[in-house]
Specification:
With 291 residues, the chain is α/β, with parallel strands linked by helices. The chain has a domain of 171 residues: Rossmann fold (3-Layer(aba) Sandwich), CATH 3.40.50. It contains ten helices and twelve strands. The radius of gyration is 19 Å and the shape is globular. Bound molecules: NADP nicotinamide-adenine-dinucleotide phosphate. NADP nicotinamide-adenine-dinucleotide phosphate binds next to helix 1, strand 5 and strand 7.
């Protein structure tokens, strides 16, 4: 079976590639820079080198594929990230249609069901729509907040602060993207499903930001204070860090759209739960980085 995998160097995609290789599959990986692939896996995959913004590349690289992991990258460095994500998702859908790819697993997010007003997640909603109309079977994985987002704030964590614009005491699903990769790989290897379906990937528990700060503090052995900042402060910080106005709006829009009474359409269930806890991830991944 030929399985094509986008973003094989990402948190989700790299886990999918490893599991496919362990399952005896030689995946085709669509990658911008093959040197960024895990060297141990490099000889065990077929490399298609190119950019997901290039429709011709995506179409050619996925020719003959029976199944596809589609990830629409967040594109925060683009002048207009949602527009760029919309173009990339359309490239994936065109490839599914042209190459008659039977099954696609799309990585999406909680909140995509709102369709608009969720910042960057609007870009994932456009991918959901485009791929659902592309003619093949589609599993949409609507994932919770990735533990790995904390890696973007290492300096702050070292200084003892965790910052958010979400409310401190509202629970939300937190998930290890490695576990998202495991759910995706299981579906890519299965051939007995069809149609268009949505499945959530919610991690082991819903956590408030205050709880998450406490878990991270305990696991890393460092005092961590939660700092809730305003949308305006976050936006100003992102623009000062070099993001375009549209990108800053898309980042802020994500939290605005998931705050204030938002409840995910897919409720927590045995099918949405994955095993890795924030505590074990923070101990294994974050603690060494904060030393
Ligand atoms: N963060 C969250 O909380 C969250 C929650 C729900 C859903 N999601 C979604 O989950 C998905 C996967 O996230 P992740 O954490 O696994 O990603 P990630 O680790 O941030 O990796 C991004 C990947 O995209 C690749 N990439 C970026 N732009 C590209 C382009 N133009 N052409 C080809 N490849 C490109 C990167 O390749 P290089 O090695 O070349 O840079 C890298 O492999 C994303 O769609 C994200 O929106 C995220």
């Amino acid at each position: 079976m030929t399985i094509a995998v986008t973003t094989p160097t990402g948190h989700v995609g790299s886990r999918v590639v490893h599991l496919l290789v362990q399952a005896g599959v030689r995946p085709v990986v669509l990658v911008r820079d093959p040197d960024r692939l895990d060297p141990a896996l490099r000889e065990l995959v077929d490399v298609a080198r190119g950019d997901l913004t290039d429709a011709d590349f995506v179409g050619a690289a996925t020719r003959g594929a029976e199944a596809l992991l589609w990830v629409t990258p967040d594109s925060v460095m683009a002048a207009d990230p949602v527009a760029e994500m919309t173009r990339i998702g359309a490239n994936g859908a065109a490839a599914v249609r042209a190459n008659r790819i039977a099954r696609t697993v799309l990585i999406s997010s909680v909140g995509a069901e709102r369709r608009h007003g969720v910042g960057l997640i609007d870009g994932l909603a456009r991918s959901e729509e485009a791929l659902a109309a592309a003619g093949g079977s589609l599993l949409i994985l609507r994932c919770g907040f990735y533990f790995t987002n904390l890696l973007a704030g290492l300096d702050e964590l070292r200084a003892g602060t965790l910052t958010t614009t979400m409310s401190a005491d509202t629970p939300q699903p937190w998930v290890d993207p490695r576990d998202v990769g495991e759910v995706a790989a299981a579906r890519l290897l299965a051939t007995d499903w069809s149609g268009v379906a949505v499945q959530a990937v919610h991690g082991p528990a819903d956590l408030t930001w205050r709880q998450a700060a406490g878990v991270v503090a305990a696991a890393t052995g460092r005092p961590i204070d939660l700092r809730v900042v305003s949308d305006a402060d976050l936006r100003a910080g992102l623009v000062a860090a070099g993001l375009s106005e549209a990108a800053a709006d898309a980042m802020v829009g994500m939290t605005v759209g998931l705050r204030d009474g938002y409840v995910p359409e897919q409720l927590r269930s045995p099918a949405s739960a994955t095993p890795t806890t924030l505590e074990s991830w923070a101990y294994a991944v974050l603690r060494p980085l904060l030393r």
